[in-house]
Amino acid sequence: MTDVAVALASPDVLARARKIKLFLMDVDGTLTDGGVCLISSTSPDGSAAVSEMKVFNAQDGQGLSLAHTMGIQTGFITGRSSPAVAKRAEELKVTFVYLGQAKKTEAFEECMRKAGVTEEEVAYMGDDLPDIPLARRAGLAVCVADGVPELRAVCHFTTRRLAGRGTAREVIELILKAQGRWEEAVPLALA
């Protein structure tokens, strides 16, 4: 994300971003492009197995790592149960991981309680209809560029990047730049 994108953020969005201490997000359609890739295989005995494949953006990974380094807690709240998501969350030291959440409100409230933050200190990023209740509560609600219009209508900010193409990184940069901490964060980036 460039400083131009921060310059395009409204004063209200920047004021909201300054307060963020917890960044929660959906996974499919935000950190991934929304595609669900199921791979089937048949063993010699004729039994079938299905595996799931997810593609994550490395810049999102760097952004989530920087958020952790800078003391911003992160979390995934997603409707699918996926070992790939759990593994990626572990790699990136994501604080809260809630998989298989048909309704996300209870997980959202539990994350806030465990993090010790208020709604205005939470950023939430999503892409689809199940994200609307959380977006309505979050201090900074974010819709990815290719998210549904119904979600975009209730969000404070829409990313310039498409789902799976660095949206989390864009939001983390926005937050850290609004907080005046981006320059401090850059030298702390790890490969």
TrEMBL record:
Pfam families: Hydrolase. Substrate binds at D28. Mg(2+) binds at D26, D127. Its cofactor is Mg(2+). It comes from the Bacteria. The keyword Hydrolase applies. Homotetramer. Belongs to the KdsC family. This is 3-deoxy-D-manno-octulosonate 8-phosphate phosphatase (KDO 8-P phosphatase).
